[in-house]
Each structure stands twice: as C-alpha cells, then as structure tokens.
Amino acid sequence: MQFLPKTIPEIQPEIISVKESPPELVTFDVGGMKCAGCAKAVERQLMQYSGVISACVNLAVEVATVECQPGAVDAEALAKKLTDNGFPSQSRSGENQREAEAATIERRQQEIRQQIKQLTIALILIILSGLGHVLGTKAPILSNIWFHWGLATLALLVPGRPIIVDGCRSLWRNAPNMNTLVALGAVTAYTASNAALLFPRMGWECFFDEPVMLLGFILLGKTLEQQARRRAASALQALIALQPAKARLVDFKLPTLDVRSQELPLNSTSEVYDPQYIEIPADRVRVGEWLQVLPGEKIPVDGEICEGKTTIDESMLTGESMPVLKQPGDTVAAGTINKSGAVVMRATRTGKETTVAQMVALVQAAQTRKAPIQNLADTVAGYFVYGVMGISVLTFLFWYFAGTHIWPSVLLGHGAMDMGHGAMNMGNELPIIHYQSPLLLSLKLAIAVLVIACPCALGLATPTAILVGSGIGAERGLLIRGGDVLERVHQLDTVVFDKTGTLTTGNLTLTDYLPVFQNSEWDLNSDINVGNKQDVASTIDGVSASAVDSKLLQIAAAVERGACHPIAAAILLEAQQQGLPLLAAEDFCTEPGFGVSALVEGRRVFAGNAEWMKEQGVAVATELLGSLQGKTAVYVASGGVLLGVIGLKDTLRPDAKAAVERLRGMGLRVMMLTGDTASAAAATAQQLDLTAADVLAEVRPEGKARAIAALQAQGCKVAVVGDGINDAPALAQADVGIGLHCGTDVAVETAQIVLMRNALMDVVESIELGRATFNKIRQNLFWAFGYNTLGIPVAAGILLPATGILLSPAAAGAFMAFSSVSVVTNSLLLRRGFRA
User: Fold this and answer.
1) Shortest CA distance to 445 belongs to which of 401, 488, 399, 480?
2) CA dihedral for 554, 556, 559, 561, sign (positive or negative)
3) Rounded distance, CA 397 to CA 107, Å?
4) CA 42 to chain centre
5) Alpha-carbon span 118 to 730, nearest angstrom
6) CA separation for the pair 805, 795 (Å, rounded)
7) Which of 43, 456, 686, 700 is exposed most, by the fewest CB atoms within 10 A?
8) Residue 778 CA to chain centroid, in angstroms?
9) How many whole angstroms separate alpha carbon 17 and alpha carbon 592?
10) Strand-pair category, 324-326 with 310-313
C-alpha cells in the first residue's frame, strides 16, 4: 500500500506576528515582602513608574521583573523608590551582578538566622506559659498573673516586635499584609487582657497566653516556610555556583605552550615582567583569548580546545554522568569540569553569552513569569487583608449585638477546639471560668478571624511550584521559560516534530550520483579517476561514468559551498573525502526551502529541489525519481539544462521511535513537518509508524508557521520541536516551542522550552515535568483558596452554636502558620516523581 503524505495548501490562516524589538527587562531583588499582599503592592508601585509596561513579582524568590520601554527607566531610581516605600531593593544590572547575588544570599541567610533567634525566644516563652497552666498551684510563681503579663509583654517586645512594626508600617502605607493581621490580633488580645487585669470589676477574662502562643506559632511557621523555600531554590543556587570565578590567561604568541605547567604567576605590575600565565576574573575574559585549564578545574568560559586532550564532566549541562573525551577542535562549555588532562582553550563566548550564564538567565526568568491561573489569586490577594479586617469587624459586631443573645449557651465554657487555658485573675492561681462575657467572646472570635486568614498560601502557591519545577528541569537540562509555558504545556494535545536534524541525526550521506549532462555546455573531459557511489550504471558518449560523477559532485560542491545546511555539508564532505578540487564559484544566492545558486566557471548553476527546477524552467526526468524513492534529491542544473541528481539519505535518531511512542502513550497526537520530498518524508514516517495524515511534507520555511496556524485553527494546542533557523517561525507560532540547544541560537531564543541535551526523550520528560508542575500549582491554589474559604468562617464561629467548637486566637495562628508551610512542602514533593 502506497504511503503519500499530504502537503500544505496555499491558502492558510494568518501568522501571528513576532515582535522584532522586545522591551527592555530590568530585574530587582526585593526585600520586605511578607505575603501575596506585599507582592501585589510592589507590583502596583512599579506600574506607577513612567516607562514601565508590566511588572511581575515573585514572592518565593523575592525577585521583581520589570518590562519597560528601552532607555525609559532608571533602574537605580526605581529601586530607591521601592526602598523608600518599605521594600529594600537592588537592581541586578551592570557588572555587579555576581556581587549583588552574593549579597542577596547573605541577606537571606542573615534573615533566617535572626528568625531562628526570635523563634527560640518565643518557644521558651510558650514553654513557661504552658508550665504555669500544667503545674498550677504546684508552681505559684509560674501561675501568677503578673508573671504571665511579663511573658506576653516580652513576646510583643522581643520576638514579636519586627512583626508588629512591619504590620503597622504596612497599614500606614495603605498596603496591609499578613503581619498587619497578626499584629492586630496580638496587640488586641494583649490590650484586652491588660484591661481585664487593671479593671477586675469588669469581670473580664485575661488571656495573656494568647499573644505568646500566637506569635510563637507564627514564627515557627515562617521559619519552616523560609527553610522550605531555600530548599526549593537550591537548584538555582547550585547552578549559579557553577559559574567559574577565575581564568588563567595564556599568551598565545609564545612559540611553545607548556600545558602541564601548574605554576601560577607572581603579582607584578612591571611592564618588563611577562609571565606565561596570568590569573584574571572569568567575567573579564574576551573572545579569542587563550586560557589554560588544569585537571580538576572548571572551564572558565565557552570555547574550543586548542592544545591537549582531556575528559570533561558535562553532567551539570546534560545530566550525563560519564565524562566526554575532548581534543583539539572540540567545544567545551563554561562550568563543566576538566577531569583528566591539562588543556589550552580559545574563548568563543564569554560573560552572559556562555552556556551556563544563559541557563541561569533562563531559569531566573522562568521563576518570575506567572502562570495565568495565578491571576485570580493575585486579584484576591490585592484586597485580601482589607477583606479579612472587614470580616473581623463584622464578626465582632454580629456576636456582640446578636449572636450571644440568640445563642446564650455559647457563653458557657469553651469548645473542644479552644486552645485557651482558662482565665487569669489577680490571685496566684488560674481558676477555670465557666462563663465569659459577650464582649470577650466577640473579641476572641474577631481576633481569630484576623490571624487564621493566610494570604501567604495564595502568594506562594504558584511561585514555589515553578521554583521547584524549574530547578528540577535545570538539573536535567530542561529549561522551561515560565509559569505561562507550564500552563500551555498542560493544555497540549499535538506535538509536531521537524524532520531533518530533529527526528533524524541531520548527518546526511550520499547514496546516488545520477548524472545527465545532455545538451549541456560543460566540458566532461576529466582526468580525475575516483570511485563513486552510483546505484544506476551510466555512460555518456564514451566518457567514463566515474569522471562524469566526479564532475557532477564538483559542480554541486562548488554551489553548496555558499549554503549552511546539512545537505550542503554532506556534499562538501563527500567531495573532500574523494579529494576533488573545488571549482571557483562566486555570487552565491540562497533561497530558503528551495536551494542555492552560484556562478561556477562563469555559468549560473542551480542546486535544489524539483519545485525550484520547475521555476527555473528545467525539466526533471521522471525516470530518475524511481531510484531516489525515500531519499532527499538535489537537482543540479545550468542554462536551463539538468546536469544530474544527487541522492542523500538521513538516519533516524536512536531514541526517535521510543519518544514518539511515549508521547502517544501520554495521549498526544504526534506529527512530522518537513520541507523534504513526500517520498523522503514517507520513508521516515514509516519507521516511526506515523500515518499519512500525520505527515506534512514539502513545506517551505515560511509555510511551516502557516501549517502550525492551520492546526491551531482546528482547535489543536500545538507544541513544535525543532533545531534550525527554518524552524524559528514555527516555534514562535506554536503554543509551546521546544528547541534543541545543539541547534541554532535563533531556534533556542524563539523556543519556550530549551533542551540542553541532544536527546528526543527529553521532549517527553519536559512535557511530563510541565504537567506535573502545573498539577502542583492547581493543588496549591485549591488548598490556599479552600483553607481560607473554610478557615475564616470556622474562626468566625460558624460551628460554635451547633457543636461548641471555638478556635482561640492561638489555635487560629497555628493553622495560619502551617497553611503556608503545607503549600511549600507540597511543591517540594514534586521531586519525588522526578528522582534520578
């Protein structure tokens, strides 16, 4: 049964345009953010600055990314504005990026150390407060009301002071946050208890233990959350640490280089002193300079081995643990480790252009781009604290004026969930009070509402999952550009592969020389006598077939010298292997998707596909097509006459079929897109068990984007996998573009997912990682919304009349503290599904 892939019709949907000059991106390290409300406040302040197009703030890594008009924003002035408004900030621009990163890490470590000190003090106060209730009359001092007043006062002044100060400042700046809610709750409980202590005739209950326990639980939760966030960011920090700090410069003018010398130069400023090796910062290396790398050292920049032979550990780049042999002419990447021999290398990419720097930039960008699903959470977070304070006021008013009158039984004792330890009075003991006033009950419920609400869970739901997912990807060579990409990955139903260089190795080999030369003006008299790979015997007017084949290959090689394509590389390699001298050629002209032309020995020669031959008025002999079935045919013509055809064949990647089968098993439709002939496409498709409907053949580069647009017009969510310049429009058009890092820079820049390894199974793994990460985002958001939706009504006393369940402020604080911890912990569980 004959297999004929379909081709693309001429009329196609309009292509989505891609911006030629992207806006300028400025990144800031932002401190002082406590919850999603803070992040939203920072975004509002950034958007108010002239020239800012959009702003995105990541609470988990405390980074803000600003998209602005080129040259319209002063980064330092914008950072100062945030700092003046209570969010200490520093831009990540200029040459101080490494120092700024180190300063940011040190600042966060200092914050954690300070938080642990505060937590230790708070836990000691909680233990002392608890002992007073457990021991009772056995320890008169511990149960004395003034002792508990002292504990509560210390809790507010020492461990609770930063929370209260920040909460009050945020409220004053009209940007209330989580600390505002906690401060209101703790100070209100402390004030009410002081009133009961100073005016005992009111019959109020003292609950000094509430602010102590509330602040202790909050600090415990924040400390655990910080530790979890640090673990989530560990992969990025490890990636940043891979960037080498030093490089050893070699004078390439020296007649001999001792690559094994391990002597370091003396520090000298003398012009006469000319050391062989000079140690300089790695970010000061320039392209073209020569560097020495000793065994055990990191490769300082991207480059090419010039002298020596060694093995390189590229696991940080590719995830492969086995070292790779490198010798003169081979490329090496910054951050990889020289394992065995001393080498001298020439720098080809430095600074921000190195592979590891690009990986860091991609991961950092991914962690600041939000998923659209987060928009609802951001909208809620912007008004969350105001809403909670309003609900707290309504709770107090309802219970004081109505609830305690409708259900007077609620004033008798406490429910099972009440973590209060009884009332306190002026005596030395802590007697149990079975009746509490409507005012205190209403106040307790209002405080519980304030402290149980958790805007942190909303703010951390998306960024922590993206933080962990992007970190896992970086460790495995899968770079996903952001949360918006993750959401689109989750929606995919179709994956379209480019053929040449993606599904196949791209290393074409010549299989056929089919010369014609009929009625041509070329001189076929040649004394070159070489073997050939002709599948069909041919002789022309007594001239040997060997000479004719060689002449055809010479002409084709001369033309293809002006092209950058696997076909051109294969033809040139074959001519070189046969020792054929290249003919003089000039005036090269490339037609993407068709072929190349040049002036060879004064004649215009065309080398390309059959369609291009027809456009040049060259008749293509149909009898030649039979022997080229399933192969790539390059027609060579001059003066309107066909000189011959060269057949080439590509080989399938070893993991191509397995990758296609895995993707199908995930419920995805797999298709192949190529500019090659229908017969060549069919041969590859049959090896992959693709049907004719899943193959789009003979598609020109500009037609690839239209082909993807046509699929999208049918309702398909499409991912495109490619590696070449010709694939860039299709990668940009696709819902998700997946580029192989071994491909061209333009393909990598256009793609939303970059695969650092040259392996198609990484396409499968990247989609699986994207799906798993997005599922974590949905779980986190479900928990965050669900927790607040259920927790706030319970704290407001909705269960109190029917069940007697009453959440004390301390219990509410404990629930709030651990809600954000649970979100971060759930994100960390993502690693369980992607263990090496």
Assistant:
1) 399
2) negative
3) 43
4) 22
5) 55
6) 9
7) 686
8) 18
9) 19
10) antiparallel
The answer to whether residue 258 scores a pLDDT higher than 90 is no
User: CA neighbours within 13 Å on the CB side: how many for 268?
Assistant: 12
Q: Please name which of 215, 189, 208, 33 lies closest in space to residue 118, comparing C-alpha atoms.
A: 215
List the one residue out of 475, 478, 480 whose CA is nearest residue 315.
Answer: 475
- Check if the beta carbon of residue 517 is closer than 8 Å to that of residue 697: no
DSSP percent split of the chain into helix, strand, coil, nearest 5: 50, 15, 35
How big is the CA angle at 585 (ends 580 and 588), to the nearest 5 degrees?
125
| pLDDT tens string 516-539 | 766 566 655 444 333 334 433 333
Q: How many CB atoms lie within 10 A of CB 120?
A: 13
* Burial bucket for residue 722 (CB in 10 Å: 0-12, 13-18, 19+): buried
Distance CA(644)–CA(748), nearest Å, equals 37
pLDDT at 100 (0 to 100) = 60
Burial 703-714 (b: 16+ CB within 10 A, else e): bbbbbbbbbbee
Separation between Cα atoms, residue 772 and residue 767, nearest integer Å: 9
Is residue 751 exposed (0-12), middle (13-18) or buried (19+ Cβ within 10 Å)?
A: buried
Distance CA 790, CA 457 (A): 14
Q: Give burial (CB, 10 Å; 0-12/13-18/19+) of 267.
A: exposed
Residue (of 663, 611, 712, 358) closest to 503 by Cα position: 663
Count Cβ neighbours within 10 Å for each residue of 123-133 and write b for 16 or more, e otherwise.
Answer: eebbebbeebb
pLDDT (0 to 100) of residue 618? 85
- The three-point CA angle 45-48-49 to 5° equals 100
| Residues 622-638 pLDDT 10s | 666 666 777 788 889 88
- Please answer whether residues 567 and 574 qualify as being in contact, where contact means their C-beta atoms are separated by less than 8 angstroms: no
625 vs 483 pLDDT, higher one: 483
Residue linked to tokens 């920072």: 42
User: For residues 348 and 299, is the Cβ–Cβ distance under 8 A?
Assistant: no
* Residue of 29, 209, 418, 498 with catalytic role: 498
> What would the mean pLDDT of 230-249 be, rounded to a whole number?
73
Q: 294 near 244, Cβ under 8 Å?
A: no
| pLDDT, tens digit (0-9, with 9 covering 90-100), for 401-425 | 999 899 888 887 544 344 344 434 3
Give the whole-angstrom CA distance, residue 797 versus residue 741. Answer: 58
Rounded to whole angstroms, what are the CA distances from 741 to 68, 477, 705, 754, 757? 28, 10, 20, 6, 7
98-153 pLDDT per residue, tens: 566 666 677 777 888 888 898 899 889 988 888 877 776 677 788 788 888 999 99
Structural contact between residues 319 and 269, judged by C-beta atoms closer than 8 angstroms? no
Q: Chain-wide mean pLDDT for the chain? A: 79
Does pLDDT of 659 surpass 90?
A: yes
Answer whether 670's CB lies under 8 Å from 497's CB. yes
Q: How far apart are CA 36 and CA 21, in angstroms?
A: 32
Answer yes or no: 498 catalytic.
Answer: yes
Residues in the chain: 836
